[in-house]
Amino acid sequence: MTTFIIRRLLQAIPVLIGVTILVFSLMHLTPGNPAVIMAGESAPQATVQAIEERLGLNDPLHIQYFNFLGNALQLDLGTSIRDNIPVFDHVQSRFLITLELSVYSMIFAIVLGLLAGIVSAVRQYTISDVVIMIVALFGLSMPNFWLGLMLIQWFSINLGWFSPTGWGDPDQIVLPVIALGTAGAAIIARMTRSSMLDVISQDYIRTARAKGVKERVVIFRHALKNAMIPVVTVIGLQFGYFLAGSVLTESVFAINGLGRLIIDSILQRDFPVVQGAILVIAVTFVLVNLAVDISYRFLNKRIDLN
Amino acid sequence: MAVASKERIRDTKPVNPRVKSMKDFYKRLKKNKSALIGFYILVFFFIVSIFGALDANYGFTGISSNATSLTEKLEGPSAAHWFGTDHLGRDIFIRIIHGMYITLGVGFAATFLAGLVGVPLGILAGYYGGWLDTIIMRLMDVLLAFPGILLALAIVSVLGGSTINVTIAIAIGAVPQFARIVRGSTLTTKKLEYVDAIRALGARDGKIIFQHILPNIMSPIIVNTTLFIATAILSAAGLSFLGLGVQPPTPEWGAMLNDGRNYMYQAGHITFFPGMMIVIVVLAFNLFGDGLRDALDPKFKK
Q: How many domains, in total, are found in chain A?
């Protein structure tokens, strides 16, 4: 087990390095000189040169990359072009909000998805199964930003139950979490259903039933445990989609998270901030998947560890 | 008696296995009602989008999707304007019809581009293995580290927002998914005995790949292409909604939603109809893709 964890950690390193190279290249592929953008179009040549000097823009590209990587490891992601505040400060405060939104949506998706999936599998081909699967298909096909707009239309504008914007109060949390979590719930429900159906048809479940074990115990103790294994992988991947999807949800609900920071910074051509924020999301996603992968092996002892 | 002998004659005729499996496939698809519904919706939308594209570009009906009318601003659905009008008095129904080919086109083009790059990469990695496999798949892992819309967002931020850039950005994000699936199927197919036999007979790699491996891995490629078009349409609409994709006044559905969000208090229908259309199109692709998988994937046979 330890060797597996170490090997998996080592495997993540080249991926993380690749991620930094890709994010670094983004800024250097951007048309226009960042120093000119920072100084303003009409700035004197001397100012531009001073900024170039300060940012090391005249260094060879690989030196610039190693500086970028070294700084990033020390949590220095550069400074914002717009307000000269360190990118890390911008990202840090916003990241917590996005993380909160993603975690709440995740919990919503897991609870709803598992319940719906189990009901659907246990009552296969009944009305409840058909209805759940149709609703799940709609949930899967719905853009989360449109669902957000519709929720605002119904529950904020027409009924006045929830606040249409912001984040923090309970009445601000409900709608964004539903908007972001629904597609995930649909995916988890479909996965749970097919995984449960696979397991339920197996011999050991028939044996348990023949022994006279109560149906509830068969489903929750015997079947669910094994059915969960593929579902856990999906859940790990979903978390990444929540982090990325929050870009749209935050835009709809005017939530000051990382996603909105990215969009605002793209529109203001504040590339150090874009770069830093995207890097943070990608690294978080890699680490979450790493954690899921490792816990997955704990859950499923049948998997060959080597 | 006569019938029976006819049957026997037909049976002795050699049957091309691929044609037989196509018939078999169609039979199974026909049994799957939801897949058929998805298929019919898609055919219908395809025809409408061709009509809309021709009309938007050559204007044979004389109706413009950008004709503004200050007297008909923010009107709800009516007989004259089926889906109502937007903040500039433009007819939303006409804009949806005229914009349909953009939504479908970006979805198809991005998926096709991703397949064009991802499928060969997956075959190379799976067939040759070794260091080539390691390099290709690690590169794919790096791209996969940017979940969902994030990579497309990063690329569009560099390239700038336009229909072509959105297509390219979404395609790049989808390459690893194709590469992964194709690599897996190639690995399984490569191990089949008859592939060994052909190799032992002296067939070249190119011949083995194109004549024996590719036809065998077509089903997962087709299924994933269909399902990915759905995702690509959602991503493209999302980017346009953020103002980073297809630019106004092009009647792209995501961009129309972005237009409408400022008028939600006065005119909710502006955001309702374009979004509803996205849902129906994506739903149709998902229905059809699910059905294809059931029909093509032996594991899902009932």
A: 1
